[in-house]
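Handout, section 4.2: multi-component inputs.
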Amino acid sequence: MSSAARIAASRAGEIVGPANVIDGADELAGYEVDGLGPGAAVRPGTAEEVSELVKYAAAEKLAVIPVGARTKLDMGMPPARYDLAIDMTRMDRVISYDPGDLTLSVEPGIPLTKLAATLAEHKQFLPLAVPFFEHATVGGTLASGVDSPLRHAYGTAREFVLGLEFVSGDGALTKSGGRVVKNVSGYDLHKLMLGGIGSLGVVTRVNFKTFPRPTPARGFFAAFETMEKALELRQRIMSSKLSPLTLDLGSPGTAELFSSATAAKIVPEAVTADLPARGKWTISAGFWGSTDVSARYERDLRQMAADCGAARVDVIGEDEIPGQLGRKREFVAIVSALSPGAVVMKLSVRASQLRGAQTEARNIVAGAPIDYATLTNGAGVIYFAMLPRRAGDAAQACRQAAGQIMKAITALGGYATIVRCPLELKREISVWGVPREDFPLMQRVKRAFDPCNIFAPGRFVGGF
Amino acid sequence: MDHHLLHELEHLLGHDGVLSRPEDLLLYEYDGSVEIARPQCVVFPAKTADVVRIVELSNRYKTPIVGRGAGTGLSGGALAREGGIVVSFARMNRILEIDIENHRAVVQPGVVNADLSLAVAHAGLHFAPDPSSQRACTIGGNVSENAGGPHTLAYGVTTNHVLGLEMVMPTGELVRIGGKAADAPGYDLCGLFVGSEGTLALVTEVTVRLTRLPEAVKTLLAVYDRVDDATETVVEITARGITPAACEMLDGWTLRAVEAWVHAGFPLDSAAVLLIEVDGLREAAEEHAAQIAEVCRLHGAREVRVACDEKERDLLWKGRKNAFGAVGRLSPTYYVQDGVIPRTKLPETLREIDRIGKENGFEIGNIFHAGDGNLHPIILFDARDSKQFQRAVSTAEEIIRFCIKMGGAITGEHGVGMEKDRLMPFLFSEADIALMKRVRDEFNPAGLLNPGKIFPTGKGCGEVRVRSQRNGAETDSTHEESSPA
Ligand SMILES: Cc1cc2nc3c(=O)[nH]c(=O)nc-3n(C[C@H](O)[C@H](O)[C@H](O)COP(=O)(O)OP(=O)(O)OC[C@H]3O[C@@H](n4cnc5c(N)ncnc54)[C@H](O)[C@@H]3O)c2cc1C
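Output:
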């Protein structure tokens, strides 16, 4: 440990107590972000401690990365500097919960599973079906901006985070929004922090709107020989009067992934319906309601699937929902576990471009030693996974393809970013894609929040 | 105003694109609020390039500039608090693109909210945010205020339906953020700019999401002899996890005012009514309507009526949406508040509003978005009596403070504007406000765009608007005036 790091650790120790300073080399290795480790890591217990830590960091110009369960630290670009990790996992309490009002306030270090258990006592839930669910914390989930298959019905976190309390770059404990479900008091600063991967501040409290649990839910599943037919069903459902909870399109590669032993390890809950779909394009949807409502969904979905020429249709019961939703939720985790060299891209396009975008991406990888799998959610976001068949030239081909896909999607008027990839790729291209014309506005946001540029420098869009 | 500036504006927009005679400006010194402030001129750009030039001129002449939609805002947002140029978007009112397949539309900011829904109804779509003022207010104004409406309970407010903006920054730059696809990389700038009350940029184009119309709609009217029973019903509906599409409440005083004018069928002897709507699949709407009717009866509703046809449904909603006009017939001046509270605190808060009103000698009417906990107490006062006006303002403040104590906020949908700037410190700390200010100063460095809004200025509540003459005439001629919220 360098002497600067030692001083930092000891000063931070005064703030959080020596027991909450992590300075052993082994343990610190767990805080590495893209190969770079911090000088020290600390685990504050209160918002005030976070504020003190940030004030200290700002005064010393130390680079800070707030972390939760560390499941998604490889998002974004490698940090330019990294002195102090602020580990939020000690701040894991439910601060208040008003089930009758469907509102909740928690500390950011609370694991999603613990939160889900609290909400389940009142038959409520949060639609945060995000990858690495078993480990992830609320804070990390919000900061990483990952979406969930459930966004089709519930939207992303921006739709149900009512307010945040956070420590901005000058160490001030700040808040925006509130605890009520409707509110226009002041600027919605908290929206900027969702998906900001910790580049604007350290979240110390999150206020949510909660939802009644959609149970019993059921699942619908249709397999097709071609993408075109599957997309036709998707469009039919989209313009029908049905409002399913989820509506996802998987490629044959995805059916393959989901039936793998790796998938079963990550999501132990059983599925049967997906298994015979190997080699097919699949549409899977969840829905819920009374017997009558469910019957209506089933009838209409079956009819539409038949009209679109489905090769096979299944309706699954409540017992298989965790397995089906879990696999979709863990798509990125399954891909990563199967292939450490995998590149997962997020491609957002209009519904009318889904076919074009997938076709372009497929054509780009065709002929290369790459397997691919795609999962497209109800919002028109395509997760496009490239799995190199071997190291060396295949890995190189993935890198090349990623760049080409970015160009192609941008040309379609969409957005392409890289969610997960080997570090080498980040040396060649920005995972955030080409900076857009709104970049100067983002610079202004960053300056207002983090004037000394201490938060996660280098990781975010455009090198923040 | 500098006559060189005026000259340049006229040169840019033509004589009919600029108003500067005092009698013309009179119309622009107010909006829907009780505030008043007169600009030096009003300009009517026809295209984005005009807006860019106007902003450049405002910078060159160091003159404040304020955007204006229909002027229905209820917090003084569109008023030129420090004088200067009002930029009316009345001429930028074209729907630029309707993209049925992708459920998107691209519109100019001056498009009237209801016109967009009408334009896409043939495809079974609508623009979901439905402020009660939707026949008049503009999408630019909705974006700036992050407007809500009765049906935002289930469908979300404006920010949930805006995907992209074209904006002219106060520095004169023309910028696009977001677009038709989801999740533009980087910070959620749309999330910041929607609801920024015209203080960060002038919006020249809006890309919105269109929403499918439901298959079935059921509208219920539950009638109560006690206000508490009505509020308890709302608490239980929320707690049971039934989300109606809309859940509005009118108390006895308000419904009598409405009934005298609109004849919507609200029983005159009742203490409160709930107007509840459910929608969705036929099967689901039926079930939810039955569940809600059950909860209403359980909580003492003496009658639960289900609108049997479109006509009856429209009549009920007309009663709700014309309440403002109805109140205007009773009192020339009234002050509408916009507090929000957790839904579990509704019964307690309504009792407290009643108490505060009595203590200060006001009868306070309540007509509001009960399902969201978004209150709209209406305080009637006589504008000729300045003491009474001051008391109305302090009474409203007492109500808002109570909302904050309940865990609520100072405004649910009308915005802070120049009306509630002094209430901001009740809700936000110095550090909170300082960061918001830093953000504003980054985008609006010279402070020329819509100055004197949102942030506490230390000035008192503005001069009250005396609208007795106007109002009397207006309410008789236009039957379509809407109610606050
Ligand atoms: C009878 C009545 C009922 C109402 N009901 C509701 C309701 O149910 N829900 C609700 O939320 N509100 C309601 N309101 C308030 C008001 O209608 C909304 O705030 C509406 O969004 C304002 O739109 P407008 O076009 O009138 O905007 P204006 O009042 O003209 O302006 C509002 C703000 O937007 C800014 N602005 C306007 N256009 C632009 C632009 N192009 N670029 C930048 N800034 C711009 C202005 O500067 C100002 O700050 C009601 C008002 C009335 C009078």
